[in-house]
Structures are given as structure tokens and as C-alpha cells.
Amino acid sequence: MSKHVVLVEDETNIAEAIRFLLGREGWRVQTLANGATAVEVIRKAVPDLVMLDVMLPGKSGFEILKELRADTAFADLPILMLTARGQSRDRDIAQDAGVSRFMTKPFSNEEMLSAVRDLTASGTADA
Amino acid sequence: MSREGLTGSRIRERRVMAGQKQADLAKAIGISASYLNLIEHNRRRIGGKLLLNIASALAVEPTTLTEGAEAALISTLREAADDAGLSATEAARADEFAGRFPGWADVLANAQRRIATLERTVETLTDRLAHDPHLAASMHELLSTAAAIRSTASILADTKTLEPEWRDRFHINIDQDSRRLADSAQALVGYLEADPETTPVAHSPQEEVEAFLASHRYRFATLETAGRDADVIDRLTQTAPELKSVAARHIARDVLHQVALDAAALPMVTLTKAMDTLGPDPVTVAAQVQQPVGRVLRRMAAMPELRAGLLICDRSGTVIFRKSIDGFVVPRFGACCPLWPLFAVLGNPGVVTHARLEQLGRGHSEFDCVATCESLPAQGYNVPPLVQAVMLILPARNPVATSMKLDVGATCRVCPRQACAARREPSILNDGV
After folding, report:
1. Winning range, highest mean pLDDT, from B68-77, B354-363, B391-400
2. Which of B72, B91, B211, B235 could cross-link to B242 by cystine, CB 3.0-4.6 Å?
3. How many folded domains does chain A comprise?
């Protein structure tokens, strides 16, 4: 069975590139361009991985992260955050809210893929 | 070496500057060259008639020989020595240095002052980079577009067997994104070059006042005890290095008058005592100490332990006072978000509002805000009152439900709030989504 990732990213072209890259690795990629419904969608989908942009219309990546972590069912869900604002302040906020990995744009495809592999490999090892 | 002990050095300095030989000067004032030599090397005390003669022969005021460099020069030199980490013994020779080499001492002192000014400019610039919402949003746009291009381009470059369908799609994406990148880069350059308000040298008087107040940490011990003493206030504003413009000194004077009034009417001890039993609740505290809520808010903002911010605006909604708080962005130029309780209370003098605020688009910090609007004393008969709104911004203590929160922005251009009735202009964040 293929692994499932929910990607919340409002930059459609970044979303498309990631969809292609992860699709080739055998992932089923579900994309969302708006933060407002993200928590609901993720709750229903119970994915293996969530990729979150920080600046999103509707609801910010930080809020989505906080809400997910508040739910014990998603306490260990690997969450990878992507942001164009790599300031240490943002990183701290994400870390405090329980992010699994934090990446700053622009990243290389290889970086992104290896982060995804790391996150999901450790996930299965823990289980 | 004491200051008067250097009179000899100054005589020598002046004589050399005037191009006179020691022997000639000695002859002119009727002493031996060897005696003058002893004087010039500070081996003989000199005063009275002889000093006056030398001064007149050198065509200088006698005081320039006895008093030497002024105190301000010496203190600037001491600062320079301190910054350079000179030993205390060396630093104490500033006086001697200024006496012997007045020209060089001036050069050094001017350089020292210039460094201080430049350091302040750099600080302001750094501050701007961190707090200018437009700049932050533009950088975000640039980086996002660059990320899309980088990712797509490397797929095109690295994937050997790419289906034509995907390839065409990625080509179109790159084309779009590269245009967008060019546009936003151009817009950013335009913004950096054109906007005169972003040039760091053009400090606004308001900013000077904020820097002045911040350097005092918003507490003025002398005003707490002296009360409303115009002389004390004038001294504070006249000597403050942060207050460069007449306008800034004027504003600062008004602010300090208010501080003194508030301090006299509501001493810190009284406020602290009331808060110890009632907690940091402005309305109940105000009732207890029998003072207007606005005054309680201003006084609470001066308590460092609360780590509070404060905003005051006049009847036109112009922010006339600000004490910044980390995470709550108040645009330095351009207009603020009209949803702030600060502005909501303007039409309702006397009402005190309380709200849990979250400012969208930045760090997502939450704040407890208390705002009220008060009429200023009447200026005459049949004159509509001037009003002032005050908002105290406290870091949020405990979490509340999302429905209890009031989402506000900093300024429309960088605010992601959707379907906002108060929106004045489109946000550059939502464009193209």
C-alpha cells in the first residue's frame, strides 16, 4: 500500500513539483492550498506525513501544527514545515509547537526528499 | 597631572602654532629662554602678570592657556578611551592629551561622535529590516518564487525520462514563476529606492521620542518624586542625546508632563499595592484607587515586570505614543489595522474594552488588550472635546478558545485576513492565490 502525504502549500507550482517528486517515490500526495480546512482534512485522512507551509491563507501553518499536536492521535505524526522565513524566531515557534523538521525555502529537491525519507523511516522504526 | 599643571604645555603648543621661537617669546616678555623652557615643560608654576604677558604676546585669551580644553571634549575622549579598552591610567590622561594636542583631540572626539551616530543608524536599519512588514512580505514572495523555480528546474534537469505532459507543464510553471520573480524583484528594488520614508537618516520625531523613552526604560525616577516640575522636564529633554529635533523635544516634553501628572495622581506604591490584592485588572484597580482607567493603563505600562506595550492615539486615530512589545507590529509608517480595540473605543469615550488579540501574518503571538477612550479637559465653551484612546498590550497569560480571539492585522498590505470589511487595500500576500 502506498504511503500518504498531505501537503498544505498555497504556492501551486511548489506543490506541483513536490507532488511530482514524491509521486515518483511511490507516495500518494494530497494537496491543499488553504489552511482553513487543513486540520479537518488531515484528521480524516490520517496520513503518514504532513508537509506544511507557514504563511497560508485561512489559517497559518503554526496554528495547524498546534492544533494537530494538541490531539493525542497526532502527537507522533511526522510534520515537515516549509517556510520562506527562516528567521530563528519562526524556527523557535515551530520547535515549541512540536514540528518534526523545519526547512527553509528555497530548498533543493534532494534535501526535501531526504528529509521525507528520514522522517518516515524513524516513524516506522518507532512503531 | 592636574589641569592647571598643563598651562606650560599649552603655552608651548600655542607658541609653536604661532611659529615663534622660544627665545623670541622669552625676549618679548622679558624672561630668560631657559626659564620659559622650564615653564613650557610644566616645571614652574605660572600665573599673574607673567601669564597675562605671555597670553598677549601669543594673542590668545589667558583662559585658553589656563583652562585648556573644555569638559565636553575631555568626556568624549574618555568615552573613546573606554570604547577602545584603554587602561584607567591611560584614560585619565585624556586631559593631558587634549591640552597638548588640541587639534588631534578634536579630530578624535569628532570621530568618536561620528561613530556613535553611525552605530545608531545601523541599529535603526537593523530594526527596520526586522520590523518593516512590507520588506518582510516582499522577501517572502521572492523566496517562495525562487523555491518554486529551483524545485521545478532541477526536476527538468535531473529527470532523464520525463513524460512530455509533465515536461510541458513544468516549462509553463517555470515561465510563470520567472516572470513573477522578475516582477517582485523589481518591485522590491523600487520600494527600497523610492520610498523616502524608509531612508534611515530621516528619523521621525516620534522615533526619536521612542528611543529616548526606551533608553530610560519608560521610567523617570526624578518625575516620580519631583512631580510636575517644568525645570526637571526641560533638563531631561534638553540633555537627551536621542532628542535631536525641536519637534522631538516638544513631543517628549508633553509625554513627560503626562508622566509627571500620572505619577503625582497615582504613585507607584499605591498602584502596586492595589495590584497585589486585585491582580493586573485595570478596571477594578482603577475603581480601588479612584483614578481614570486611562491613567491606570499608562501607569501599568511603566511597570517593567508586566512587560506590557502601550499605544495612545488622538482623535484622528494617529498613534501619538507607542511603547513597543515584541510580536505586536505597529507600522512605522502607513496606517494601522482599524480593527485594533484602540480605534474601536474612539467613538465610545468611557467604555473599557478587553480583548484577546492575535495579530495575523507574523509571529502569531497573542495578547490581552485593554483599551479605553477618554475626553481631555475642555478647552472652552461649546468646543467638541479632544479625546485620546489608550490601549495596554499585555502578553497573553493563558490560552483561550479560538472563538474568543480577535484576529487583527498590522496593516492591510501584509494582512492575510480574508473577507475583511475593514480592508483598505488588497494584501500582497493573497494576490494570485
Report:
1. B391-400
2. B211
3. 1
Task: Measure the CA–CA gap between B29 and B48, rounded to whole angstroms.
Answer: 13
Tell whether the model's pLDDT for residue A124 goes beyond 60: no
The C-alpha of B166 sits at a distance from chain A's nearest C-alpha, in angstroms, of 9
Which residues does chain A have within 8 Å of residue B433's beta carbon, measured at their own beta carbons? Answer: 10, 33, 57
The SS3 of residue B415 is coil
Nearest chain A residue to B140, by CA: A84
Kindly list the residues from chain B whose CB atom is less than 8 angstroms away from the CB atom of residue A85.
136, 139-140, 143
Residues A25-45 have pLDDT tens digits of: 999 999 999 899 999 999 999
- Asked if pLDDT for residue B71 goes beyond 70, the answer is no
Q: What is the mean pLDDT of residues A91-116?
A: 90
**Closest CA in chain A for residue B163:** A20
Residue A53 belongs to a domain with what CATH number? 3.40.50.2300
Test A57 with B430 for CB contact under 8 angstroms. Answer: yes
- Residue B358 C-alpha cell reads as 492575535
Please tell me the predicted confidence (pLDDT) of residue B234.
87
Evaluate whether B357 touches B406 at the Cβ level (below 8 Å): yes
- Asked if residue A93 is part of any domain, the answer here is yes
Residue A98 within any structural domain of the chain? yes
Residue A127 included in any domain: no
pLDDT of residue B139: 82
CB–CB of A107 and B147 under 8 A?
yes
Q: Which residues of A touch B140 (CB under 8 A)?
A: 55, 84-85
Q: What is the pLDDT of residue A1?
A: 61
Containing domain of residue A103, as a range?
Answer: 4-122
Residue B67's pLDDT band, with cuts at 50, 70 and 90, is low
CB A51 within 8 A of CB A99: no
Annotate A25-55 with three-state secondary structure. CCEEEEEECCCCCHHHHHHHHCCCEEEEECC
